[in-house]
Design brief:
This protein is mainly alpha-helical. Helix content is about 70%, strand content about 0%.
Length: about 260
């Protein structure tokens, strides 16, 4: 298969929701040495996002009704299946680290590419942290990779989709596992303000940018509403009036693994 055939197959698998096939074709694209551009890197995010979310959804369905007393055989079967899902998530993250590192070694000093791939590693580290008994190491890894990605993304437009998705995911890490809501809110507000100064709805990236701006605005309202009135961010509390519920988990928005869930 040539590059065009592989890209067609990747898009077809994406539309069909066949994320295993999608990742397989993307790996072939990498193995054959074809150049990756922003759209292909976003498709890589979408593939891992779909695979992660399908397993999370399965675990959630299995976890429902855990308070009920089940026959021992059924309980053991469910426990085994939940462990299998956890193992699969672990393997997916390891696979993602390997793919991202392999691509990072090839892209050189291209800021957009490096920011996107480092963000992928940070996102996957957050997934790992959510399924292990001791998440400290994975949370630290996620923070390190997000910070490295942020340095690379500083060279991009404030409204670049990679920069927005990175800020969204990093803010969620700060507000969630790290418990630093003020810093998360500050990051969201700063990112939104800078992006809106240059945002143009006529831009080709508008369909990718708009959902990210909405998620940043929604989470900012939620985080600001949880801060004391004395906080410098209290001026954004009014935004919470239109944000009655947390942003849904996004693990893909045109592809970014963006777990934008806030409790």
């Amino acid at each position: 298969m040539d590059r065009d055939d592989l890209l067609f197959s990747i898009h077809l698998a994406h539309v069909a929701g066949r994320y295993d096939d999608m990742l397989l074709f993307l790996k072939r694209l990498i193995h054959m040495g074809f150049e990756f551009h922003d759209p292909e890197r976003e498709l890589l995010h979408a593939a891992f996002a779909g695979l992660v979310e399908s397993r999370r959804a399965a675990a959630e369905r299995l976890g429902k009704g855990t308070a009920k007393k089940l026959p021992p055989v059924v309980g053991k079967a469910r426990t085994r299946l939940l462990q299998q899902i956890t193992d699969e998530l672990h393997d997916l993250c390891q696979d993602g680290y390997y793919v991202a590192d392999r691509m990072l070694a090839r892209v050189g000093a291209v800021p957009a590419a490096r920011a996107c791939l480092l963000r992928l590693k940070g996102d996957l580290a957050r997934v790992r942290a959510s399924v292990v008994a001791e998440p400290t190491k994975h949370i630290a890894n996620a923070r390190t990779w997000y910070e490295q990605a942020t340095q690379e993304a500083a060279h991009l437009s404030p409204a670049h989709p990679t920069r927005l998705a990175l800020a969204l995911n990093y803010a969620v890490l700060l507000a969630g596992p790290l418990g630093d809501v003020p810093t998360a809110a500050t990051l969201a507000r700063t990112t939104l303000s800078a992006a809106l100064l240059v945002y143009d709805r006529s831009l080709p990236d508008h369909p990718r940018i708009a959902p990210l701006l909405t998620l940043l605005r929604t989470n900012l309202g939620i985080w600001a509403a949880s801060l004391p009135p004395s906080s410098p961010l209290s001026t954004t509390r009014a935004a919470a009036a239109v944000c009655a519920t947390p942003a849904a988990p996004v693990l893909e928005s045109v592809s970014q693994i963006s777990i934008a869930h806030t409790a």
